[in-house]
Structures are given as C-alpha cells and as structure tokens.
Amino acid sequence: MGGKLSVSAFGEMLGGRFFSLLVSIVLFFAVAPFLEGFVGLKMLFDIFLSLMLLSAIQAASQNKLTLLISVLLSMPMLLCIWASYFVAMPQMRMAGFGFSFLFLAYTTLLIMRHIFRTEEVTRDIIHGALVVYLLLGVLWGFIFALLESLRPGSFEIPAGLIEENRLLFIYYSFITITTLGFGDITPLTAPARSLSLLEAVFGQLYLAVLVARLVGLHISQSKNK
Predict the structure, then answer these.
(1) Measured between alpha carbons, how far is 174 from 200 in angstroms, rounded to an integer?
(2) Can you tell me the distance from the alpha carbon of 31 to that of 13, in angstroms, rounded to the nearest whole number?
(3) Could you give the domains of the chain?
(4) Which of 55, 150, 157, 192 has its CA 20 to 30 A from that of 215?
(5) Residue 5 pLDDT more than 60?
(6) What pTM value is reported for the model?
C-alpha cells in the first residue's frame, strides 16, 4: 500500500492518477506545434515531450515493480532524445523512436488493464480512458516515424513538412485513428498501408469496447445504489 501511495500521491492531489498525464498531453499538443521552426525554442519541444513521458511513468506505476520497469524503459528513450543534440547520428534518432514505442506500449497496456479491470466508473477512470486514446495516437505516431526512418519513402509527405517528422507522424496518426483521412500524407508501401489500417481499426474497436464497458458499469452502479 505504501508503494502505491508514494508513486501516485501527487496525481491524487491534482484529481487522480491520470489527471496530470492528461493535462501534460493536452499541453503537449496545444503548445508544441507552435515551437516547431524556432531554432532557439526547438529544445522546448523535447522538454514538453519529456515531461509528458515522465507523467506517464507516474500514472502507469501501480507498484514498485511497474515503476522500476517504466523507469528502465524510459531512460534509454530520454537518453536518445537528448543525445541527438550532441551526436548527429541517424541511428540515434531511430533508436529514440524504437525506445519511445516500447515505453508507450508498456505504459498504455498498464493503464488499459487498470481501466478494464475496474468495477466502478469514477472521474479518474474517465481521465484514464481519455489518456489511453491519446497515448495510442502518440504510440502509432512513433511507429510511423520509425517505419519512415527504416524505409524512406513509405509515405508521401508534402515538401514543406519533411524537416521535422515527429509531430508530423503524430498528426498523421491522429488523423488515421479518428478516420478523418485528410489525404495530405499518404501511405505508399504495403507496410505503411497495413499499419495505417490496423490503427484505424484498433482505434474504433477501442472506443466501441470502452463505451460498452463504461455504460455497463454505470448501469450496474445505478442498480446497486
């Protein structure tokens, strides 16, 4: 019990385990895009990203073991992000995408397991459900960025957007998971099309199952009361 309180006390003070992570993700999307293209402020993009990922550690850590695994997965990811300022190596960039994928996948699975195991719908569970959906978009964004790094030309990208592809593929990921499909970025290869299809299907299934689960729990709570 002491381990759980120690890793989540800060989140509880702010409204629950997942509230601080939800706020950090929203701030990341709201502020980070306006920092792109500014040489002096570009580092702030990685600061916001690092803060978001550190908030994910706090939210996903249910005990000392999950906290330890989350920290071990986040360390090489953060190292690759910040080492790119000192070492200009494409391999470092690809490693950063890969470690980011592993960390976000582990974090998302932990939060999702907690949501679907709960027997009561609370404000914190609602926050967690929103967090999972947003993390899925970020997670698939890193998958697409890694694919483009390993196999350049997997996507048709407008010429003016090629310089920075982290936010670019996160943007494409959310356009795909929400099935908006603006068409400004187009998957060209079979792996790119397959991954885009999987994300769109998985995103819709998650929403359908989540709504059914939460509605069922809410009806059960109402009957019990």
Answers:
(1) 9
(2) 24
(3) 2-224 (1.10.287.70)
(4) 55
(5) no
(6) 0.79
